[in-house]
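$ run holo --ligand "iron/sulfur cluster" --emit tokens
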Amino acid sequence: MKQPAIRAARKKLLAWYDKNKRDLPWRQTSDPYSVLVSEIMLQQTRVDTVIPYYHNFLQRFPDAQALCDADTEQVLESWSGLGYYSRARNLQNAARQVVRDHAGEFPQSSADLQKLPGVGPYTTGAVASIAFDRPEPIVDGNVARVFCRLFGIREDFRSTSANAKLWELAAQFAQGPRPGDLNQALMELGALICTPKSPDCPSCPLRARCDAFRVGDAESLPIRAKKQPSPKVSAVGVLALKDERALFVQRGARELLGGMWELPGGPLKKGESNAAGAKRVLGETLGLELRDVRHLGEVHHVFSHRELFLQIVKGTVSGRVQRQGFEAHQWRSARSLAQRAPNSLTKKALALALYGKGSKAKTVRKP
Ligand code: SF4
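-- output --
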């Protein structure tokens, strides 16, 4: 598309956006901190799920200074249910960096924004354009779909060459008045009109120039190369009891679910029974001896990159905790942790361990 055509498309898109945009809470502000919070929450999470979390998070941590000063456990608690907890840790680290390196004021340049933890090219473009009205591009799933259809990009949209084309097109679209609104308009068009299934082409402000509309193959775009299936992982989680208290461990900050409190446990070896695996894991990671092991059931949890089958067992332990591979440990009443379990996997594991709720064992190993 040549420059005049892009200018015309921008104009139509902005006019459509002004009339049709959804009234979302983060659209009421250009405060960079609030924009960053919303953008990080919206990564991999649906808009209607994010709205209450966004309000609650900003109420508890209204600015970078408040988030910087907060206890990480409280931050993770506010994130509980949104998943992908590294986002919350990165957000707090970004706030700390803003306070430390920029006296609490968000930097405006892309170069400085990109230095913030967890802020990649997409988030940089979103904050720079929405909060500071800078002509910076963004490409998310919605924008990629709109551009693949509009410009007839018929190759795997995650390939290096397609990705370069998409960012180049986004950079061209960002040039001109109201870059923040323009970027949001592209995403909104993808969310409301140019949807993955049954795009509403007759209502689309860009249909006159759309390649996929002309060819009639919009629904088959964007092209995705088949993904490898996620690996399946078997692990054991142990309700390890001593004097009516249960043992909880905190994961290392750099691990998956870093900083979270959970039941102790670990991966099972091939062919290993639940009881043998639980005894081995507790011995290896905590130096504890586990007895009277009982299998309670299985929790199934799907992460973005793996599928977990967690066998929950219960037993009594003896010995002194010698921590290896965990950040901290606590003996506490299991019910007290269940009330404020910090992530959905631990919630499911505790619901099963304490109340027998949750997945029935589908792949029960020998107890
Ligand atoms: S005309 Fe249809 S396929 Fe093309 S951009 Fe609009 S909604 Fe998407």
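-- notes --
Residues 360-367 have pLDDT under 50 and may be disordered.
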